[in-house]
Amino acid sequence: MSNPRWHADTIVAHAGVGNDPVYGSLSTPIYQTVTYQHTSAGFGPYDYSRTDNPTRAALADVLGRLEGGAKASVFGSGMAAITAVAHLLRAGDHVILTQDVYGGTYRLFEDTFAKFGLSSSYVDTRDPDQVYAAFKPSTRLVFIETPSNPLLQITDLALMAEMAHAHHAILAVDNTFMTSLRQRPLDFGADIVVYSATKYLAGHNDVVAGALIAGNDDLAEQIAIIANASGGILGPWDSWLILRGIKTLDLRISRQEASAVAIAQLLNEHPAISVVYYPLLPNHRGQDLHLRQAAGPGAMISFRLSDESAVGPFMDKLQCIIPAVSLGGVESLITHPFNETHRELPESVRRELGITPGLLRLSVGIENQNDLLDDLKQALPH
Ligand SMILES: Cc1ncc(COP(=O)(O)O)c(C=O)c1O
């Protein structure tokens, strides 16, 4: 049972409830099956688990409802989901992307899809003039992150949708950092919402998964066809883990965000740090815009140590915050984008964008806030 008027925190709490017509199991069963017995009359609602599976369908249903009743497809990773977005295009098409997109997205468009005839431009999507100048007659996709990874740059969702549509292109928004509980790009005219569900949606650093939520049925149908044809789908066990993890999404994000605000303030006042990137800090470019289009600042913070050589010793001294890639889980993780998440970008591009060796990206977890603050204080250069 569900009610279309339910708020997002109720939708997540009830994720997967009511999907067992046989025994009434509260939790969605893990339909660990490849195929489905059918009668001589033909297939029932399911025929083969690459095409669809009830456990995966239950997850897709929740993700779609969280974006306002849209249709979702669930993939085996965030990159498989982004690959499906690229598969909507054809050879000769051009793509505009946020300049500091996740390094894996850059690699996918630059290496894999360039070989199939897609070309891409990376622009500062905060600046509408730069975006406007990047359009070509062949531009069919604008792919943005807001806030971006790792510099938390803010892009105007409604303006990007308007510009993309005026050029007969679609707008895809990687909303991994925010989730639908903080930002719903479809409400601003975006055509596709992209998730690495590995991060906040699953939330426990134990599943790799992705999702696409489409703004209209035609696009949703095209994506479902691509998912079935290319096969990068999520299995039933991992789908169930996300159905379970997502129940606490609202609680997790609220707590992570509250700690992130306190940590951003601490970092901002620390003499060893030259810049802090966090949408709630008053000097963050695009702060007003972010607060208009998002319901909160999120729990990702990037910052720059003035002395680049202090990065290694700082990371080594951390006890509670774990040096590791990925983000959005219950454990706080700290990443070195220059050498890790963004190493796919040529060094000159990284440096030009500000992804230098002094930059660190912190994903704030659900640990006790004071333990996190104390850990940073003892590890930062005095
Ligand atoms: C913003 C963003 N999008 C997409 C991805 C790719 O997701 P996955 O690792 O689930 O393939 C990542 C991974 O770090 C990410 O940070």
Task: List the SSEs and their pairings.
Blueprint: H1 8-13, H2 54-66, E1 71-75, H3 78-86, E2 94-98, H4 103-112, E3 119-123, H5 128-134, E4 139-145, H6 157-166, E5 170-174, E6 192-196, E7 210-214, H7 217-230, H8 236-245, H9 249-269, E8 273-277, H10 287-293, E9 300-305, H11 311-317, E10 322-323, E11 333-335, H12 347-353, E12 359-363, H13 369-379
Parallel strand pairs: 2-3, 2-4, 4-5, 5-6, 10-11
Antiparallel strand pairs: 1-7, 6-7, 8-9, 9-12, 11-12
Helix pairs in contact: 2-8, 3-4
Residues 77-79, 102, 104, 145, 149, 174, 176, 196, 198, 208, 210, 326 line the site of pyridoxal-5'-phosphate (PLP).
Report on the architecture of this protein.
This protein is an alpha/beta fold and 382 residues long. It has two domains: 240 residues, Aspartate Aminotransferase, domain 2; 131 residues, Alpha-Beta Complex (Aspartate Aminotransferase, domain 1). The protein contains 13 helices and twelve strands. The mean pLDDT is 96. The site of pyridoxal-5'-phosphate has 14 residues, from helix 3.
